[in-house]
Amino acid sequence: MIKRLTQLTLLLGSCILIAFLFKTGDAYTSSNDYCNSCHVHDHALYSWHQSIHSKPNNNKLVTCIECHLPPKGHGFYQAKIKAGWRDLYAYYLKDSSTYNWQQKSQIEHAKIHTFKASCTNCHTKLFPDSLSSNGELAHWHYVRNKDEMHCIQCHLNVGHGNYSKTTHNLSILNKKAPKDTIYIKAASIQSFDNFTETIPESDVSFKMIAVKNDKLHNNKSSQAFFIGQIEVSWDEYLLFLSETESEGRGENTQVDGISGATPPWGNPDQGWGLGKRPAITMTHHAATTYCQWLSKKTGKNYRLPTAEEWEFAAKLAYPNSKLSEEQINTNKTQTLEPDDIKPDILGTLHLFGNVNEFCADVLENGEYIIKGGSFRNFKEELSPQWKAVTQTEQWLKTDPQIPKSIWWYSDCNEVGFRVVLSFHAE
Questions:
Q1: DSSP type of residue 263
Q2: Tell me: the pLDDT tens digits for 155-202?
Q3: Bridge partners of 408?
Q4: Torsions phi, psi of 159, nearest 5?
Q5: Long-range contacts for 374-379 (Cβ within 8 Å, ≥24 apart)?
Q6: CA 357 – CA 354 distance, rounded (Å)
Q7: Which stretches within 41-176 are classed as H helix?
């Protein structure tokens, strides 16, 4: 009897000790300090401190595991073990200096490491009294499409940083202080040579490259044309927005009759920068409207290229279809400025990589051809013949507006456009 009692006591004590060690170990490995002792990307901790999640809410901080592991009872320990083995392997057997952290912070990667159940476990009320009208619209959209959507599609940086996608960005449309040079008139084309276009009453200019078009297949009557040296930049596109956006029309009489875009939600440049970087996230309709605006401003007939024209220019730029690492951006992370690469033989920049470029060609399903690939593509898969098509429904997945925006894609940051101009010899 005493022996059995001793064995039972030892068994019970062992269970208590194991439970204590498990609880202590679970608490220790669930702390922010433990997470940051293993993870080597210090910017994650820094950006967390900038976010609302690092501020006490009802005397409670949101910890790493409350976003990056599912709630207990929803596969918590299975996910924790899996994440632990993955992180230990990376910590001891991989070189953290080779990691592309910016790429890993983008939506397709972030969805893997953030659990929707964790978001809704904490945010049980989707329609609190403090919710804005824009937020209410977005949350109703989520409720109707919750099987297809993840919270971070709209709140990507809410845990790391202070960016909110559910707010119209009016500040981006504010006119910047002009440079010393203000152009009085548009450029005059005297011959079929490269020229620099100047947008009247602004300090914005861009270069157009002459493309001899006498050998376009299947279309011998095609005229020669000019093509933009670079994709339409934010400098150019923001001028268009500031003069035509529908909630603050400019006073320029040259653009009367052109209704521009509504203000975007959040940062359409994704925080990568404005200036000469390619303008992105606009719809094909918006790009076409920009061409109409630019045509009225300059007295010319700017438009989107046809796929055939784009391909012809690309073959002149890369006659052997050999894409050099120094002439193409496929960094899987973000757009680059023109000066970050070398020009091709034709004199253009970023024909391949950087951003997909709209063409004028429309398909039977209403989608449009895009050419060139983006920073997400691999260099080896791109060529003058490469093409893809717009995915309007997919690129407007998180747009809560009814009807959907005709101006901005809510879920595509890798498409822009380049303008062309037909040349008519006198």
A1: P
A2: 877 777 765 555 667 677 666 666 677 999 999 998 999 999 999 999
A3: 282
A4: -90, -20
A5: 374/330, 374/414, 374/415, 375/329, 375/330, 375/331, 375/332, 375/333, 375/334, 375/335, 375/336, 375/414, 376/330, 376/332, 376/414, 377/330, 377/353, 378/330, 379/323, 379/325, 379/328, 379/330, 379/352, 379/353
A6: 9
A7: 42-50, 64-68, 76-93, 101-104, 107-113, 116-122, 133-144
